[in-house]
Specification:
Rossmann fold, 11 helices, six-stranded parallel β-sheet, globular, 2 domains, alpha/beta, about 350 residues
């Protein structure tokens, strides 16, 4: 008989409820505790989740419940205290939202904490479960593109929301070959004070150890995807090779041209109802069997996080930044000190509104 694992979920906003509902819908999980600083929202969530234990202090609730899984869906400035709370309560698996950390100093610290505790950790790059993402990965892995020489990701959403996704899925297409160096530029200060603090636009290049080149753009200057209506879904991630290309649009399906198959395309859009169940099921599989490592595991996420932070360092300090990163830094402070105080130039009219330029 499969084991049932207890779960505490911290943060009862949109993403927290997605997680909590998906955990409860899987017979191998039971949400035994939920936490939020908003008591009204907490009570409403509890009524929908079978009335688990509740609390406004994540650490205290975790110690009380001692869950197998500690999941938190909070703002990115709370990574360290949440991970500490989950580990202190003895959680076997920590699940949390991207990005892994806002700075390389924090990234290295939380990675070391989790490694030292011997805990598993999963980062929510769950878009990959979409059928259109899976199709592009299938085409790339089949060899239909010939020798892959370039992977890429663009998103009009700002960096701390979207760049982690763009890098992770392109690294997935490239079999998680590690980065060797990064080079980038950044512009615009409007989103530096956002709850997902970011330059308004960042763009750069990454050299991977297997010779593949990565190209990334995120924010106001990133290219529009006019065939996609939903602004947050204007994301394009793909791979190019000697015999073709394949790419996915988060809310616009997939398309490919290959020497073998000619032009191909298909539908697909990000859908939490479809993407969350397999993401959660893979956590149960990993808890059941150490060999069944979750596709969104922390080590993969940290490869992408270092690339994301190296791009920020390069944008602030100039020149190439070697990977893996040596020593920790405060990339947020660097961005605030170095980015010029002038409005970002946008790629399309819709970006003017989203970046406060109208």
């Amino acid at each position: 008989m499969s084991k049932t694992y207890s779960v505490v979920v911290v943060g009862m906003g949109k993403r927290g409820m997605h997680h909590a509902a998906a955990f409860n819908a899987n017979p191998q999980f039971k949400v035994t505790g939920i936490c939020d600083i908003d008591a009204t929202r907490l009570a409403a969530a509890a009524a929908k989740l079978g009335n688990p234990a509740t609390g406004t202090d994540a650490g205290a609730l975790a110690k009380q419940v001692q869950p197998d899984v500690f999941c938190f869906c909070t703002m990115p400035n709370l990574r360290t205290p949440m991970i500490q709370a989950g580990l202190a309560a003895g959680a076997k698996l920590i699940a949390f939202e991207k990005p892994v950390a806002l700075t390389s100093a924090e990234l290295h610290a939380v990675r070391d904490l989790i490694r030292a505790a011997g805990a598993k950790a999963v980062v929510s790059h769950q878009h990959r479960y979409g059928a259109h993402y899976q199709k592009v990965k299938e085409i790339v892995a089949s060899g239909a593109l010939g020798r892959v020489h370039t992977v890429y990701g663009t998103a009009t959403g700002w960096m701390t929301h979207m760049l982690s996704h763009m890098i992770d899925y392109s690294c997935w297409f490239n079999d998680y070959a590690p980065g060797v160096w990064a080079l980038a530029q950044a512009a615009g200060r409007a989103k530096l004070g956002d709850n997902h603090p970011s330059p308004d636009y960042i763009a750069g290049f990454v050299q991977f150890a297997n010779g593949v080149r990565g190209i990334y753009e995120c924010g106001a200057g990133a290219p529009d995807q006019p065939e996609v209506a939903k602004w947050w879904g204007k994301n394009r991630i793909g791979a190019q090779g000697t015999e073709g290309f394949a790419e996915v649009l988060t809310n616009g399906g997939w398309r490919a041209v290959t020497k073998r198959g000619g032009a191909q395309s298909g539908e697909g859009a990000m859908n939490y109802d479809l993407d969350m169940p397999p993401y959660i099921a893979d956590m149960a599989a990993w808890l059941d069997d150490d060999a069944r490592v979750h596709p969104c595991n922390l080590e993969h996420a940290c490869l992408g996080a270092e690339i994301m932070l190296a791009l920020q360092r390069s944008a602030c300090e100039g020149g190439q930044v070697a990977l893996p990163l040596v020593g920790g830094a405060d990339e947020q402070a660097l961005l605030k000190a170095k980015i010029a105080d002038r409005p970002v130039l946008v790629s399309c009219e819709q970006n003017k509104k989203e970046f406060g330029l109208t």
